[in-house]
Amino acid sequence: MRAQTGLLKGLNPTVTVVSKVLVIGFVLFCAIQAEQAGAFFQTASDFILANFKWFYLSAVSSVLALLLYLMVSRFGLIRLGGDDERPEFTFSSWIAMLFSGGMGIGLIFWSVAEPMWHYASNPFAEGLSDEAATAAMRITLFHWGLHPWAIFTMVGLALAYFAYRKGLPLTMRSILYPLIGERIYGPIGHLVDILTVAITAFGVSQSLGLGVTQINTGLHQVFGIPVSLGMQVMLIALISFAATMSVMSGVSRGIRRLSEWNMLLSVLLIAVVLLIGPTRYLLNTTLESTGDYLQNIVGLSFWSDTQKDSGWQSWWTAFYWPWWMTWAPFVGLFIARISRGRTVRELVAGTLLVPTLVTIVWMSVLGGSALKSERDDRLQHEQQVASGQLVGKAAEFKGGEVLLATKQETTSAMFVLLQKIDPGMMGKALSVLVCLMLASYFITSADSGTLVLCTLNAVGHPEPPQGIRVVWSILIACIAAGLLYAGGLKTIQMASIIAGLPISVFILLMSFTLLHTLRQESFTGLPTPISGNRGTVQQNTQESSDSRKPLLDLGVAYNPSLPAKQVS
Q1: Backbone φ, ψ for residue 409 (5° rounding)
Q2: Distance (Å) of CA 530 to CA 103, 192, 539
Q3: d(Cα 195, Cα 61) in Å, to the nearest integer?
């Protein structure tokens, strides 16, 4: 499937060329016909959210239940590779890369903003109350906890299993092998990979667009640098250059080191906020929110707002699930890429439970700090009303400083909170730290996304050609800048909702094929190859290092010099 000569040597020409044409064409359409594109995607996404939220809710919950079963079942002992193979990365490096590639920028963006929105209004409690604060943390943890990571984990587990255990290419097409066999190497497989590339490119670009807007806001808060499109484009250019250098250095050097740096900065931020902020309140919030989340997780998983049908579910949960699904090919393939040698139980527990625990602490400390600030502002307001200092319309409490800032500009929520915690130099220093974190997470998201795109173009080869890495790095930066210029980030979000529907069907399909194939494992100590698998396929997932033992006996001895499947 990979070209042996020419400009596209080492790549699948069909997937590489068609995916780029599709991505560039879509961006141009959004830029030139922004109003028409926005209207179309808005209408389509509203229809899907209104009529298929029950499907999204049940699908994601089913995937989570299946993963928990696989983790505790006999299948958890299956190693994703040879039975004597060990992981390439240490546990700490692995977790750091999972977290950085999965939700890094999103957690910084929404850790303060989302609890504020739910505190202002949610279907479970009266807004701007202590009960609303409790509900806000419960809902936020639900949206960023086990369920989204279940989506990523299922894709990552399925890809890792079929690639490293069965010798198939590390691409989405391999999921279909139990159903269509050798036809995954034809037009059906090409179509799956092309759509995966396009969805991944849009998802990464959207993340980068959101990241630079928040960085720009932070620089404005601290240094007075104006918020402008020119500044955001310059930030994209600078950070994308750093991402290009990182992705060219490979996973073991660039992405791993940056991910570890990200985790150190994150721990530093949480430690400082916990120390100088309302420590006792935050510790209590973390404990209480964890228990409240676990106690209500089943009910929230299936709650569809049937009686009131207020639209809240469509704006939040039913919006989040397909949005996470559009990230699944990117994050899932990256998980698979860095998880070779681990067992099914290790992968599920590591990618499902550990990031959820980290998310709980992160959201509880930062979101809890914002809620404490709002509570203090509300109590002060009530005292002023009781003393007669505020009368008439002024007596109505509309929110504290952090909430009002969030309503005005979501990207400013984090920085307003930090200034509220410490108005002096420490607050400014923390704001600078957040900007550094955003830039660092920006780089890791861009380089891991670029690596995934290149891997798909190279039909699963773990080390795609350097040239395609540079091309995709530049293209992602151009897409993000173009969407910001055209105001197309919202358009991409709406399009993501539409794309989430077929992706959800595909995720359920891969759940079936994975479970079906797992049941065929012999548990004799050796991987069981898929019937009819061709010997040359093994090279798609094997690294050329002689230190790696062949995973499968596919009827031929492993030879790194064997050519990949010829372009058809």
Answers
A1: -155, 110
A2: 34, 20, 15
A3: 25
- Specify the pLDDT at position 253: 63
| Cα dihedral across residues 26, 28, 31, 35: positive or negative | negative
CB neighbour class for 543 (10 Å; exposed up to 12, middle 13-18, buried from 19): middle
Number of neighbouring beta carbons within 10 Å of residue 52: 17
User: CA–CA separation, 136 vs 117, rounded Å?
Assistant: 8
Instruction: Report how far residue 286's alpha carbon sits from residue 234's, in angstroms, rounded to the nearest whole number.
Output: 38
Burial class (CB in 10 A: 0-12, 13-18, 19+), 68: middle
Cα(126)–Cα(28) distance, integer angstroms = 44
Burial of residue 432 (number of CB atoms within 10 Å: 0-12, 13-18, 19+): middle
Q: How far is CA 244 from CA 2, 139, 266, in A?
A: 23, 37, 23
The pair of three-digit structure tokens given for residue 191, joined into one six-digit string: 């179509």
Q: Which of 496, 490, 452, 495 is nearest to 473 (CA)?
A: 452
- For CA atoms 100, 103, 108, 112, give the dihedral sign: negative
Which of 452, 561, 558, 564 is CA-nearest to residue 82?
558
Residue count of the chain, please give it: 568
Between the alpha carbon of residue 554 and those of residues 91, 455, 532, the distances in Å are 31, 23, 9
Q: How many angstroms from the chain centroid is the CA of residue 395? A: 42
pLDDT tens for 169-209 read 999 999 999 999 999 999 999 999 998 888 888 777 777 77
pLDDT tens for residues 353-374?
988 999 999 999 999 999 999 9
Structure confidence at residue 35 (pLDDT): 77
Tokens 């006999």 correspond to 74
Q: Which amino acid is at 567?
A: V
Rounded CA gap, 314 and 326, in Å?
Answer: 17
| Dist. CA 161–CA 175, nearest whole Å | 10
Sign of CA dihedral 62, 173, 207, 491: negative
Q: What is the pLDDT of residue 535?
A: 38
pLDDT of residue 58: 95
| Cβ 106 vs Cβ 555: under 8 Å | no
Q: Which residues of the chain have pLDDT under 70?
A: 1, 6, 101-104, 250-254, 462, 486-492, 522-568
Residue 499 CA to residue 330 CA, distance in Å, equals 14
Torsion of CA 240, 243, 247, 248, to 10 degrees: 70
Find, among 347, 350, 460, the residue nearest to 79 by Cα: 347
Q: Give alpha helix (H) positions in 121-175.
A: 130-144, 146-160
Task: Give the chain's domains with CATH numbers.
Answer: 13-381+407-540 (1.20.1740.10)
Residue 207: strand, helix, or coil: helix
Inter-residue contact 81 to 382 (CB < 8 Å) = no
pLDDT at 268: 94
Q: Are the beta carbons of 446 and 438 closer than 8 angstroms?
A: no
